[in-house]
Amino acid sequence: MFEEAQYFAPVAAQADGSVVVELSASHPGFADPVYRARRNAIAGLAVNYQPGTPIPTAEYTEQEHEVWATVTRELGIKHAKYATAEYLDGAARLRLPQERIPQLEEVSQLLEPLTGFRYLPAAGLVPLRDFYGVLADGLFHSTQYIRHHSVPFYTPEPDVIHEVIGHANALANPRYAALYRLAGEAARRVEGEEALEFVSKVFWFTMEFGVMREADELKAYGAGILSSYGEIEEFRGMDIRPLDLSAMGTTHYDITKYQDVLFRAESVQHLEDVVGDFWSSCDDDSIAKLVAARV
Ligand SMILES: [Fe+2]
Question: What PROSITE patterns would the database entry show (predicted)?
Fold first, then answer.
């Protein structure tokens, strides 16, 4: 999931217990009352979800399953060219359905035997500390809706394609899953909001938008790149910088555009040594020093 409020459609619980998702006028589904009703119903599943119970089944249309099948097919071609070996390993182990949207409960059942991770339903924005904190418990907050069928390769918000194709395939790889857990432990350890934001930005520039050198080619492992039909063709032309904690934790990003500044790890080991070790040990003081070192 992306972590900025403006990227999520606001979700409001009504007095009668129903849930309304407020889509902006520019959202592809804005003028589709059937889609909007489905969005409201799916958000209601997350709002009313009781932890420890199976994730309720979301209703999808045949058109929406076709969106999943189309995007899965097209991204699969691009992943073979652009994704890291570890991500491809995760995808091969997870074996997501190709022709239909998997339910989040099904994703959990596929993922848990591999790395212990399970999914939690999220209606929209989850507060940073909750979103990251539960990663330490092997839990991943995920939206359940899918983008509007009229534009299969575009979504203004993180949908189930991003959450599952982008993140679950990565979470199926033990080395990446361990990094996600460490990010969660870091989010639980730090106390100040500035330190938490720093931890989340390092996550953004690694597990969401990270790139990696692999046999003299630049590959992607970040879920945001690997779930974006357009961005995956563009990342090699972006401003690629060396992995640097101070820079990642303080660089501003605009979630509404393609990410034009990316940070490259030289290997998985390098990512583990720099970012994994940071998340393993960081606290408010060490982060304050990293912020000061940036100036
Ligand atoms: Fe994400």
Answer: BH4_AAA_HYDROXYL_2
